[in-house]
Structures are given as C-alpha cells and as structure tokens.
C-alpha cells in the first residue's frame, strides 16, 4: 500500500478506479497523466469519470474502459476523428 497517490501512480501502466474515494473524485486527467509520466490505461469500475474526463483521457493518448458504459468507444471514436 502506498499512501501517496503521486508515488503510487509514478511509472504505472494502468490505474483502476474501484472505489469512490474523494481523492479519485477530485482527480483531473492531466494531473493523473503527469503523475504517471505518460499515457496509461484507465479502468473505471465505479462510474467515477464523467464523459468530459473520459474524452480528455482519450485526447491525452490513454485507453479508457468503464464498467457498464458501452458508449465509451463512441467517445473515443469522436476524439480520434477530430
């Protein structure tokens, strides 16, 4: 366990959001990617990310999967077209 979020994310290939902790709810895509050191895979198990955050992760070169959110691919396709 790592109590420091930045340290835990440094060098990560993926981040799994599996609990609605306040720190995750207030985390911005640009901030997380900076902590990780580059694009990563984001797996949202709890509906933490809103559509704009998902869009931003795609814009930053990340891959995003959201449980129960089949429409995430449509957001990705829209970002890739622009």
Description:
This protein has 5 helices and 3 strands, in the order H-E-H-H-E-H-E-H. Helix 4 crosses helix 5. It has a 3-stranded parallel sheet with strand order 1-2-3. It has one domain: 3-Layer(aba) Sandwich (Rossmann fold). Strand 2, helix 4 and strand 3 form a beta-alpha-beta unit. The protein is globular, with a radius of gyration of 12 Å. Helices cover 44% and strands 15% of the residues. The mean pLDDT is 94.
Q: How would you sum up this structure in a few lines?
A:
By secondary structure, the protein is of the alpha/beta class. It has helices at 5-9, 22-25, 29-36, 51-59, 72-81, and strands at 14-17, 41-44, 63-66. It has one domain (5-81): NAD(P)-binding Rossmann-like Domain (Rossmann fold), CATH 3.40.50.720.
Question: What's the SSE blueprint?
Answer:
Elements: H1 5-9, E1 14-17, H2 22-25, H3 29-36, E2 41-44, H4 51-59, E3 63-66, H5 72-81
Parallel strand pairs: 1-2, 2-3
């Amino acid at each position: 366990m790592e109590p420091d979020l930045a340290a835990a994310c440094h060098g990560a290939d993926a981040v799994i959001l599996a609990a609605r902790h306040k720190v995750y709810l207030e985390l911005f895509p640009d901030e997380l990617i900076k902590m990780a050191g580059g694009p990563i895979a984001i797996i949202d198990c709890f509906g933490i990310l809103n559509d704009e955050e998902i869009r931003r992760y795609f814009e930053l070169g990340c891959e995003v999967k959201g449980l129960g959110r089949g429409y995430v691919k449509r957001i990705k396709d829209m970002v890739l077209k622009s």
